[in-house]
Amino acid sequence: MASVIRLGQTPAPDESGALHLETPRLLARSNAGGEDGIRFTLFEKAAQREIGWISLSVAEGEDKIAELRCFVEASERGRGLSREALRAVVPAALGRVRAQGLRADIPIDDAAALATARGIGMRPSGRGRGSVQRFEKDLCALL
Questions:
Q1: Residue 62 above 70 pLDDT?
Q2: Which long-range contacts (C-beta less than 8 Å, at least 24 apart) are formed by 118-122?
Q3: d(CA 17, CA 113)
Q4: Do residues 46 and 25 make contact, with C-beta atoms less than 8 angstroms apart?
Q5: Where are the beta strands (DSSP E) in 3-140?
Q6: Per-residue pLDDT tens over the stretch 22-38
Q7: Cα–Cα distance between 21 and 65 in angstroms, integer?
């Protein structure tokens, strides 16, 4: 079993290549991941149960932009868990995926997701389709 990495520490993978991260309220465990993507499963410490996931993936030909996706169970929303998890997971994941930027396509009627994106330093790009707004972040800026 790998040691758990706490927020602010540099993560090292376990023998299978997985990362284990800890925040004040969450544990996050990754798959082995690679240059094209990585996925973390999120667990709430208090309930000791899975509550969601975060993934970063880089599509070939996308100028090394990592697509960010995040899901937290409806019963766990509104408590800041997504932002807490993203602040720990994104820097660790970027050590695996070689990306120069980060983007997320967010429904314009999802106020919480829009606020979470802004809370980790992402900004609207002015691009999007229909009911979806694209947020982006230059990875030279810290989370």
A1: no
A2: 119/83, 120/83, 120/86, 120/87, 120/90
A3: 30
A4: yes
A5: 5-6, 20-22, 26-30, 37-44, 49-58, 65-72, 101-107, 123-129, 132-138
A6: 999 999 999 877 778 89
A7: 23
Could you give the angle at which helices 81-94 and 111-119 cross, rounded to 10 degrees?
50
- The percent of residues in the chain predicted with pLDDT above 90, rounded, is 47
pTM (2 d.p.): 0.83
The angle formed by the CA atoms of residues 75, 78 and 84, to the nearest 5 degrees, is 105
- pLDDT, one tens digit per residue, over 70-89 is 999 999 999 999 999 999 99
For 90, other C-beta atoms within 10 Å of its C-beta total 22
CB of 84 within 8 A of CB of 51? Answer: no
Q: Are 101 and 139 in contact (CB under 8 A)?
A: yes
